[in-house]
Design goal:
Layout (H helix, E strand, L loop, with lengths): L1 H21 L17 H4 L3 H13 L27 H9 L5 E3 L5 H4 L9 H25 L6 H26 L10 E4 L14 E3 H18 L12 H15 L3 H12 L3 H4 L17 E5 L15 H4 L9 E3 L1 H4 L11 E2 L12 E2 L10 E5 H14 L3 H15 L10 H16 L5 H8 L4 E2 L9 E2 L12 H6 L11
Antiparallel strand pairs: 1-5, 2-3, 4-8, 6-7, 9-10
Helix pairs in contact: 1-3, 1-6, 6-7, 7-8, 8-9, 9-10, 10-14, 14-15, 14-16, 15-16
Length: about 500
Amino acid sequence: MKTTINNSYTRILLTVLMASILSCSKEFLDEPQNTAGLPESVVFSNREIVQSFVTGIYARYKGQWDDDLTDDGLEGGNNSNPDTGGLYAMYFARTVKGNDLIQAPSFFLFDYAHENRSPTFRRTSFTWTFNYEFVNYANAIINGVENSPDLDEGTKKEFIAVGKALRAFHYFQLALEFAPNYNNDRSVARLPIYTKPATGSSTGNPPSPLSEVYDMILSDLKSAIEDLPEERLGKSYINKTVANGILARVLQVTQDDWDLASASAKAAYGGDAENAVTSTNWGEGFDDLSDPDWLWGMFQDGSNESNFFWLSPHAMIDHDSDGYFATYANTNFRDTFSDTDVRKLFEDIYGSSTPYREFVTSKFTFTFASDVPFMRKSEMVLVDAEAQYRLGNEDDARSLLFTLQKERDPNATMSSNSGNALFQEILLERRKELYGEIGVEWFDAKRLRMPINRDAVHRVPVNVPADSELFYLTIPQSEIDANPNMDNSINQQ
């Protein structure tokens, strides 16, 4: 990890702070001081400068990583690809691994075919580098704020909490992407843990057992939730509500505290499910961060804050704008929606005789100003429904499920299912509500140890068995070569 972490840290006070300086929209600070190149002693001496630093970190979610895994602002130009365009690119790579959507021979085609996990492939290297870079940013915040003689205690608590929430979120992504399911083998060791920022003399740490990685994730999130405020500069920022949502997702994976999963989900959606599921985005392009249903997302303004054609899912899925026209909808998935469901946004616009090209979805509209959803209240209502089912409260689970269903379909009726049939209905509702957004189908299959079985309509009808190694990536060769505490045997686990 020495190479990745050290390279990112040498840029952290330059590239990231410069990104924050250039950000002047409603989502970011108005004209913060020019702090590019300032030493840590200055950066962590003033609340406004620390906030600018954090703002710049969030702006990195719009980054475009070159093939050599540097950012696009470095000498040599931009050799990046839309499938390594930021956090949403990682989510979309998960999305196309499922059965519900179909990817044409375009970007993300190797993810779609489950052929993109080898140690030297771009998907593997990008996903590792991207997440560990943010881990290092988080450690820089925590370390810098803790050691600052100038910041007051309230400011310190708040920004340490920001750092811990970021670190937990990105270690969670690493655990999902590079390790088997948590409940398969908690002793498997594939991820090094770092709690201090890298320096020029840093050496990569040995990998830690998955149980220790999740212990740190849970500890960081619980600590962060205590000290994070609800107030924030915009929905691009993690606050107490979003941290609760992240914790709810983690507990869906560990499956060992459904009471806390329910409480965390409720804290995220506000406790009033009927109000929480109200959305203004369905049929309007799913591109507006101001939607009351959206908890966390990536703001874009179409000019200085835009990822342009690197944007997923919008640039891939929209077939009416100037994008890639790359993603299609499975006919059988389309047929799970009633005709009065506002989410049934599928069209046969090509009249194609090729089965996989029969339907597209107009859920997402692509422009350079399209905002990207990372977390929504409706997802949290469904997490709560699953938690209630797991706790044996099936009436509560059905009621929460119906709250969402009747909001999306005026002709919906409350489920009469029980047992596994009710659970499967909750999982289907998650797919219908969240398709294209966060890779929900892949996430549920992995955490629940289920297969991904594609039907014949697919361009690549591959089947992925439960607990298959295809559910996680190998460790990048670049990490193995740079870290003396790792060798090639790690990919034999």
